[in-house]
Amino acid sequence: MKKLLIVLLISISGNLFAQSSPQDMINVFFATYEKDAGKAVKELYATNKWTERIKGEIDKIIGTVNGFTENIMGKYYGYEIITTKKFSKSFELYSYLVKYDRQPIRFIFKFYKPNKKWVLYSYSLDDNLDVEIQEAAKLYYLKLDKE
After folding, report:
1. Can you tell me the mean pLDDT for 94-100?
2. Cα 129 from Cα 9, distance rounded (Å)
3. Residue 120: DSSP 8-state
């Protein structure tokens, strides 16, 4: 009975990302990210067999997130949703603010459902939030002709 339980747990955990909704996949990602950022990225990319072709780029991203140490970025405080865009029943984008002492980082997840399972389509991160916020506050974006 004990062996059966162990095998069942291993098979369930191995398919956790592949069998989930995009939001479930993100929740698992951030739960792992808090403990091991590189592992979280690697497991997320593992949901899509086609990402094997970009192993070099994935390794760079893993190196980047592993570099977000407390000495460099300060303490990690969690994450907040910025926006979600559902382009169709099969393609969704999720943007998150990841909070560190030093500065926020934006994580963008794109998911694709080619058939029955959601997979990661792309993942990126950047620190350009301040530039975008300044741009969004420019007068030509504001509706000044309100009555």
Report:
1. 97
2. 40
3. E
